[in-house]
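Design job #97: recover the sequence.
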């Protein structure tokens, strides 16, 4: 078990802010794609698979009328999923101004976005902010408590310092009702470290991604270093190109427990797919999303290189301790 130092030992310096800005600028600069551009993406099937994973998590845990907090909501790619779950209220927060703008446009349905559709059935509040720095419990005091919190493919951006990791979990915990659920996806540190140790140098990857660690990790041993701030550069073709941080899951789990968030499950995305793709309703969902092509139930349309990227991620579910009238 990782024993964290007391609150007063937090080290926040200028470089943390610079890195957070780098991440924000990277995502802000990514423009909306047309439907044609999206379909031509070298990782289109991976994107669809990730959408399927997020949809399954949402269908498993969102209930009609739920108040939902979406941390690092991005361009609002999950709005339709939440609508299908008939949620009652949605708050989305993201650090990237450009992404929140796109999210707003998508929610209002007044842009040339490819998915022209009816208005969303839930009211929403969309905000630009650093979810791992700001006291969201203060900012969102009037919106809380939430039944469900979601942080998809973004929790690892909080792991640059202990202070940020704690702020992230404190925010989730303070805003969830007792018995509320926290769902998310993030890189699987075990897989990344295993791949690093198998690699010849400090970098590895395939035709669609690469990961590169700094020289300081040349011995490839992380046992004595702090579990926060272990940075690497991640490049995913047509998606990501910015600094990211290793999140050792046992540290995440014990830190979450300190904030009254208990682990329900954690699964590598390969295991997640194997398990939930056995269920008829989720096979049908996969078919509709087209991740596996025209009705095939294997990985035939997802390239092996895309499937390897899926292996770099995990899905987790946590539950806020305590009883509630609704659980
Ligand atoms: N959750 C969305 C999804 O699944 O489509 C977006 C995922 S994208 C890979 C990562 C998102 O995390 C980006 O939109 C980025 O701006 C956001 N992000 C990174 N650091 C953040 C922070 N400190 N506070 C809020 N959002 C952050």
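Job complete. Output follows.
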């Amino acid at each position: 078990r990782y024993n964290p130092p007391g609150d007063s030992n937090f080290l926040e310096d200028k470089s943390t802010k610079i890195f957070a800005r780098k991440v924000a600028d990277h995502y802000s600069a990514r423009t909306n794609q047309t439907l044609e551009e999206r379909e031509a993406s070298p990782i289109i099937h991976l994107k669809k698979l990730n959408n399927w994973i997020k949809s399954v998590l949402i269908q498993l845990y969102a209930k009609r009328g739920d108040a939902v907090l979406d941390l690092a909501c991005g361009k609002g790619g999950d709005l339709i999923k939440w609508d299908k779950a008939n949620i009652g209220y949605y708050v989305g927060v993201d650090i990237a101004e450009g992404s929140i703008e796109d999210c707003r446009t998508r929610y209002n349905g007044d842009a040339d976005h490819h998915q022209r559709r009816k208005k969303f059935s839930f009211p929403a509040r969309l905000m630009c902010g650093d979810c791992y720095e700001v006291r969201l419990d203060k900012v969102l005091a009037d919106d809380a408590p939430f039944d469900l919190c979601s942080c998809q493919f973004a929790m690892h951006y909080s792991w640059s310092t202990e202070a940020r990791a704690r702020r992230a979990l404190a925010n989730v915990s303070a805003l969830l009702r007792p018995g509320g659920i926290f769902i998310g996806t993030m890189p699987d540190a075990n897989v990344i470290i295993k791949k690093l140790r198998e690699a010849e140098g400090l970098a590895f990857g395939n035709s669609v991604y690469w990961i590169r660690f700094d020289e300081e990790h040349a011995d490839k041993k992380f046992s004595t270093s702090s579990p926060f701030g272990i940075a690497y550069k991640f490049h995913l073709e047509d998606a990501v190109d910015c600094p990211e941080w290793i999140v050792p899951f046992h540290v995440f789990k014990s830190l979450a427990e300190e904030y009254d968030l208990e682990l329900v499950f954690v699964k590598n995305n390969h295991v997640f797919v194997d398990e939930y793709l056995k269920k008829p309703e989720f096979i049908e969902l996969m078919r509709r999303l087209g991740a596996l092509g025209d009705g095939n139930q294997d990985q035939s349309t997802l390239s092996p290189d895309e499937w390897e990227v899926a292996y770099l991620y995990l899905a987790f579910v946590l539950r806020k301790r305590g009883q509630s009238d609704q659980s």
